[in-house]
Design brief:
The protein is mainly α. Helix content is 72%, strand content 0%. The longest helix is centred in the first third of the chain and has 18 residues.
């Protein structure tokens, strides 16, 4: 299947971002996120979800929430994976008020809560 260079760059970036997430390399994930923006590679929800998840797994809840907020600022449609990663970052850090605030805002993000969403919210409290 032929892809444009822009699509290939996004797919390559997503693969690298996912590798950073899975490898626990949250700092490299943030550097890659910044480089992606700097090089004007089109970000998508996969790119952002992987960066949010990398921060969540490292206990960097503030960075995870910042990245989640970037979705709306960059007009990238959120999904349940990105939302759950941000919510789980709050849960992991014991930031129950932030978690509940995020849960209340889920309607704004047009995100449908699922079992993971509910478990993370309950665990945060």
């Amino acid at each position: 299947i032929a892809r444009s260079k822009a699509e290939s760059d996004t797919v390559t970036c997503n693969a690298a971002m996912s590798a950073c997430e899975k490898g626990g390399e949250w700092e490299n994930a943030l550097q890659l996120y910044s480089a992606t923006i700097w090089n004007k590679v089109k970000l998508d929800v996969v790119t952002c979800s992987a960066a949010i998840s990398a921060c969540q797994k490292a206990g960097k809840w503030e960075a995870a929430l910042h990245l989640f907020a970037q979705l709306a600022r960059r007009r990238i449609e959120s999904n349940t994976i990105a939302f759950n990663a941000a919510l789980s970052a709050c849960e992991r850090a014991g930031e129950w008020a932030k978690a509940l605030s995020l849960l209340r805002a889920s309607k704004q993000h047009e995100t449908s809560p699922n079992t993971i969403t509910c478990n993370a919210a309950i665990s945060a409290c």
